[in-house]
Amino acid sequence: MSFNPSITAVLNGSIHTVHRMIPLEIKNEEPSLLNQTYMNGDLGVLIGMTGDLACQLLIEGSEASFRLIGEKMYGWPLEGEMLSSFTGELGNMIAGNLATHLSEHEVAIDITTPTLVGGNKKVEKSREGFHVSLSIEKEHQLSLFLMVEKT
Length: 151
What we know:
It comes from Halobacillus faecis. With 151 residues, the chain is of the alpha+beta class.
């Protein structure tokens, strides 16, 4: 993949936005190259982006991790459809804040409506991308996957 400063901006902006939006202690590992087909876990949200960079951002984790985030943000545990709805809305909030953050760094993107994913679906390696593991409150995990469209 040739160097594209928009990739760095979107990846760093995604990490920054997650830290800003989720009111819990979060530690992230260094980004790594996504070099295999990925099977997502219990629950996730997929956000498409166009503009200076054509890519998709997948935020995925266990239901327990999203439940913890929802409980911290709303004050009560979320289950079933409420948890699914919250996960989609969290993706919406992250995407909107990411677009604003990137515009402040002169990267223009448009975002698609977030899509809820789950149930061990495959994300085929038809793109190049990056993975960032996030530890939340020491015992919970989320993963960010930035999948860049090949140009």
